[in-house]
């Protein structure tokens, strides 16, 4: 497979740089060159074989036949030259064999390097695949967590909307309760006023009753004093006493009615105070609920 010239040049440049950095003590490994050149393993191994061959000197071919001119010159010289030629050929053969052994050793080293590099690459691939699987699991968990958070956000927004609506209703109810409390307070004030009026009427009735009782006693005393002297005066006194007694009875009835009205007014005032207290407690409870939700 032909390599791209740019890739080959990049691999050769990386190999030369690593070779020089290593002090030309040994050829760089295929995996080191692959990483330095940032190429695939196949491209690196193919180019490195070519680079290693270029670093190994080739054996110089030597002629194996005696030239015709030399053979014609003289047999002794020919024998000597032939001997020298054979010696050169043997040296060339030994040099070629040494080169072949060196190249075979280099190829064995290259094969081992390729095997090690492939194992390293396979391990790196396995680690990368495990990391990819871990990242995919993390991504799935993140997506699940994002979905859960979105659902919780929707629930929170729904709960917030409900809380706001409840707060608005509670505020409206609090306004209504305040209005009713004002009305109840006004009714309570009127009841207090009625109670005061009833107490005043009762007190006035009691004063009148006391005055009439005193007047009745006076009249009775006068009637008893004048009974012996004048019967007519006694009758008039008795009549006046009777009228006074009737007035007293009427005033006592008025007093009793005033006391009943006062008692009723006190009961109504107590009931209104209880209603006002209940409304205040409801209002405080609603305000506490609103503050808690806020």
User: Sheet with the most strands?
Assistant: none
Q: Any idea how many domains?
A: 2
This entry's quaternary arrangement is single chain
How big is the Rg?
66 Å
User: What's the mean pLDDT score?
Assistant: 78
Count of alpha and pi helical runs: 6
- Our estimate of the beta-strand percent is under 5%
Helix content: over 70%
In N-to-C order, the SSE pattern is: HHHHHH
Amino- and carboxy-terminal Cα gap: 76 Å
What is the tally of beta strands? Answer: 0
Bulk shape: rod-shaped
Summing up helix and strand content along with how strands pair, one would put the structural category as: mainly alpha
Stretches where pLDDT is under 50 for at least 5 consecutive residues are: 58-64
Write a concise keyword list for the protein shown above:
89% helix; 2 domains; Helix Hairpins; single chain; rod-shaped; 294 residues; 0% strand
What does this structure look like?
This protein has 294 residues and is mainly alpha-helical. The chain contains six helices and no strands. It is rod-shaped and about 220 Å long. The model is unreliable at 58-64 (pLDDT under 50).
Strand and helix map with partners:
Layout: H1 5-21, H2 30-37, H3 41-55, H4 68-73, H5 75-226, H6 231-293
Helix pairs in contact: 1-2, 1-3, 2-3, 3-5, 5-6
Give a quick summary of the entry.
Helix content is 89%, strand content 0%.
């Amino acid at each position: 497979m032909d390599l791209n010239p740019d890739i080959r040049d990049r691999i050769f440049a990386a190999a030369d740089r690593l070779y020089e950095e290593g002090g030309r003590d040994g050829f760089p490994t295929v995996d080191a060159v692959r990483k330095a050149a940032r190429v695939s393993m196949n491209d690196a191994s193919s180019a490195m074989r070519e680079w290693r061959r270029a670093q190994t000197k080739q054996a110089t071919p030597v002629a194996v036949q005696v030239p015709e001119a030399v053979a014609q010159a003289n047999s002794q010289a020919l024998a000597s030259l032939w001997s020298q030629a054979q010696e050169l050929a043997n040296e060339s053969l030994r040099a070629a064999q040494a080169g072949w052994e060196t190249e075979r050793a280099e190829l064995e080293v290259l094969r081992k390097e390729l095997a090690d590099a492939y194992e390293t690459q396979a391990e790196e691939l396995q680690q990368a695949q495990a990391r990819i699987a871990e990242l995919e699991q993390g991504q799935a968990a993140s997506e699940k967590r994002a979905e859960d958070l979105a659902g919780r956000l929707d629930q929170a927004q729904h709960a917030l909307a409900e809380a706001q609506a409840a707060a608005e209703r509670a505020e409206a109810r609090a306004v209504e309760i305040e209005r009713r409390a004002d009305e109840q307070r006004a009714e309570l004030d009127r009841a207090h006023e009625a109670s005061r009026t009833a107490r005043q009427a009762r007190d006035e009735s009691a004063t009148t009753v006391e005055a009439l009782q005193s007047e009745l006693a006076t009249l009775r005393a006068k009637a008893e004093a004048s009974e012996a002297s004048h019967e007519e005066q006694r009758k008039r006194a008795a009549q006046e006493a009777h009228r006074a007694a009737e007035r007293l009875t009427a005033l006592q009835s008025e007093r009793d009615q005033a006391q009943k009205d006062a008692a009723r007014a006190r009961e109504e005032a107590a009931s209104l105070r209880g209603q006002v207290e209940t409304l205040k407690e409801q209002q405080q409870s609603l305000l506490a609920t609103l503050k808690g939700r806020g």
